[in-house]
């Protein structure tokens, strides 16, 4: 992190660092559940630390003990899968019954020890699952992930009864984790996973009630949100993570996303997190050429879309993740009204206590930047493996090693997860 400057502001310099910090330190009230203590959030990061039996275990608990007092008012866990037979990557945690309830309670207790609200991200990979983990994947339609060289099996189209069962699975998992002590849940509807597949006309070619038009394509998400709310009640928080666009020709675009945002506002969602891309077009990593240079200068990759949502759906609370690195950009995003909460992901794997430094004035920015080689698949590999290894180090009780050579990270990842996992990561999975 960059140390704060003692230079006093000039009259024309805008808000002072003290004013910027005070803005980010303000609590944020939610329609359901306890208010967030401040405007900084640890966004979901797939930890890859679940045990072989798909339970959380001690390593993931140790990682969240490290993050518990890092200064964020909200912590969102990585993927927790709602079906033990449908895994997106090695090390996933899956919850479909109460067999691991004691373990989940210990995880919740560790993560909440510093006073942050902690939400569990709920997910199902759909077709986006390596065949070594999920040999018979399901999806809205039987359309394979393109250009994967056999890494992913062609999915089978879900029946109507199976779609209804999946809605119930999301709700059941939400109820279990809330009973374990988590403060709420986030439904993952972005990045090319199952709900995102239902939303996109590229991957959803159904003609029944779960497809056919935009309303049909978003029906699965709406039913999941309603079922989850009914299960967790009015005193727990419910968030959704949604793509601004998937950056695929003929796919889910900003107009589609805006309409989904309107529907989610009507459903009383407590916080919408804006992201973008799929793992084959990884805009959320900051290595994708589709991001405008003006957007990069503002740091937040999807701030233009967030501003559009704010104008057209003003009552929907917004969280924006992706690209934030400086106190000034974070406070400006909140002060302008574009967003209510700033999400931080990768910086917290290298600088785990960065938010506390931003709030107490000891630092003003993060030094984490995307690593670019000019070869997109290699960029995705370098990014994801680097930050995964940092989380694993903290899970083992060690400090991050941000300057470690990428080849060592790749070798460690390969030794732990196998060659298919590296192939998957090269495609961003």
Describe this structure in words.
This protein has 429 residues and is α/β, with parallel strands linked by helices. The protein contains 16 helices and 13 strands. Mean pLDDT is 88; it is low at 279-291 and 420-429. Helix 11 (327-335) links the parallel strand 11 (318-321) and strand 12 (341-344).
Short synopsis of the structure:
It contains 16 helices and 13 strands. By secondary structure, the chain is of the alpha/beta class.
Strand content: 5-15%
The helix content is: 25-40%
Mean pLDDT: 88
The computed structural class is alpha/beta
Order of helices and strands: EHEHEEHEEEHEHHHEHEHHEHEHHEHHH
- According to DSSP, the number of beta strands is 13
Number of helices: 16
Oligomer: single chain
The side-by-side strand order for the widest beta sheet comes to 2-3-5-8-9-10-11-12
Q: Give the uncertain stretches in residue-range form.
A: 279-291, 420-429
Shape: globular
Specify the biggest β-sheet.
8 strands, parallel, barrel
How are the SSEs placed, and which strands pair?
Elements: E1 2-3, H1 17-24, E2 40-42, H2 57-68, E3 74-81, E4 93-94, H3 101-111, E5 117-123, E6 138-139, E7 156-157, H4 160-179, E8 184-189, H5 194-199, H6 214-217, H7 219-232, E9 237-243, H8 254-266, E10 271-275, H9 293-297, H10 303-312, E11 318-321, H11 327-335, E12 341-344, H12 347-350, H13 354-360, E13 363-365, H14 376-395, H15 406-417, H16 419-426
Provide key terms for this protein:
13% strand, 429 residues, two-stranded antiparallel sheet, alpha/beta, eight-stranded parallel beta barrel, 38% helix, disordered C terminus
